[in-house]
Amino acid sequence: MSFELNPIFKRPSVSRELTKRFFFSANNGTRIILFQDSTIRWSFSSDNDHYQSMALRDSDMDVTGAIISDPGDYLCLYNSHQIRVIEIPWGLTNVDEISNSMASSLQERVYNFNEDKLSVKQVLFHPLSKSSPFLVVLFSGSQIAFVDLKNVFKSSDIPIDCFLNLTDSNVMGIDNRVENIQYVVFADDCLSLYSLTDTDVYCFYPCLPPVASLSKNRVDELINKSIVLYENLGIDADDIVRKNVIKQLQLASSLRKKIEEFENANGEVEVNVEIDLEFRQTKAQGYFSISPYPESLYTCTGKQISVLPIGEGNELFLVSFDNGTVLVVFKDKESTMSWDVNDYSFNNSFTLVEIIKFKPEELSNMVVLQGELGKFVVSGEKSTILVDTTKWSSVISKCIRDNDLRPLVGLEMKSTITHINSDMQINSCGIWNSGEAKSLLLVDTNVVVGYQLFKKEVEFKPESAEEISTELENFTLDKFTVPENELKAANYKFQEAVSVPYSKVIPANIKQVPFGSNAMEEQLKILNDISRDVGSKIVQGQSLGLMLYDRLLEQQDKLSEQLIITNKILIRAKKVQGDYPAQLSKLDEKLKKQEHLEKILLKMESNLNTIQESQKLKSLPLSEKEIQLFKELRSQILLFNNFVHKQKDQKQNIQFLKKELQKIIDISRSESSKGMLNEWEELRQILADDAKIIKECNEQLTQISKELDTKNTVTNS
User: Fold this and answer.
1) Predicted TM-score of the model (pTM)
2) Is 558 within a domain?
3) How far apart are alpha carbons 375 and 387 in whole angstroms?
């Protein structure tokens, strides 16, 4: 399949300066989302011909980063000074019907920040906020803010208690906050927020939203972990550690009580639970040690940290550095939660599993593939590399599950490196799951490349005649590749752009000055600005014209298709009209015949009703034919009864022989006289049963004979 030909990736713009586009997939690669040219497009991977789209209300936003929520219901766009969240209406089958007010409500929130005070560096969706989106924002000053989209309408409304990693004015020194945070990521437990600085890894645990979607099983697992932690604390354990473990148990118990208030909260069913403020204000713990730590990285700077699921609820951590090195580490100890302690560290350690080295220009970004255990992508300047750890990470996961370390003996922990592409620098990548195949899509400004990960074997099934429908049956026209609302949005943007007058004009005091004068440079500068503005509007108009031209070609094709079908219908209509008189004549004949048969049936029904109701007809004597019929019936009944009697006799004889044979066998085993007496009693019982059956048959025959004699007497009289 050529993904580049899919309509969702088509770009109508004729400008050479194409904007950056972002590609995402959700729900195991079945939901596809693309943002390009200030327009959001989405579709299901199974639908290769159509997509839905929605244009941004404000198209001037220079988007530098984008993320989606885990289910793919929300898209977040951001740059250093603005965050915008848009809801994607997957339930709507036709977005063209969306009104302006509804489109505005879907584009939920816009937050503007003062870059001098708070400059946005990274944005995440909290994985536990499934009822309403909840953002985790990292600023360039290493502050972390939690933004509740349901209650916060602008950036100034963010409460101070929703910020983490702020300087504590009551504490002396610089150890009360984490500096120079480069990247943050949530662990697989959805409760731990890991942060990477230039040199170290820290963790905010717990990291909870005001309202969390939790299941009973998840909370029970947290309770079990907390109990094990408490029981393993030694007598000489630090009082701070003991206090944190006790508070962790209190949190888990309070969550369990709140969940039990819901009637349907069983197993994996998630319910929304409010989290108290005292459990949401946390401080960083760490740093996390990595053992053994490579000496070559002491002079390097950390770039990114990611979490790589490997199955069974287990995970690895990926830490990248500016020299092209990626450390694959495993968290070997269970940490405790921490709230109000500065410079807290307990069980904060990683074990180094593998070192993967790339060229520095090959390592610009790491992307963990959703739904693919143990696989991640490393992208750089004109290079894309797929790293597969499954041949050893799956063994580690199984060992943890089975609590058996023997399979690790002799296991080579070396990942498979596959160079996918070396011709382009991708902007984003994701999984495209069509059901029959699963592919990794690499997307840059104007190219889409697919790399197949998995293909389902499909058995060939010949098409049967019953499955082949007629050409005109259930005929429907396909939708246009570009939705109508996207055309309208492009036209509106162009009309809005050309209606605005040029912002710069040549001042009146230098209009009459000759070009050879000193004012020539200023005139040329203004003319360049005007020509750039004019050129931008021309490109925008050409892009709109190209979209309309493509739509016109599609409409011509569909019109031709409609004309062909209409012509076939007209040809068949002529044949129908020619055959109509003959068919109508046959129909009249059949109707007349049906009417005649209905009259006969009605007459027969009337006669039967008359016979049934007449007492005279009931008392009429039997005719000769009726007498012969009854005699024949009597002879047949007697013959039938005779056969029944013979069958019973034969059956009894067989049963008797069977029992006799069994008796002979029993006698050969035991010569007891008591056994012979029992056999004699059984034989007497069989003879009694035979006599009873014969008596019943004789009584039936006698009764039938009396009835026939009575009929004959009535007839003769």
Assistant:
1) 0.67
2) yes
3) 6
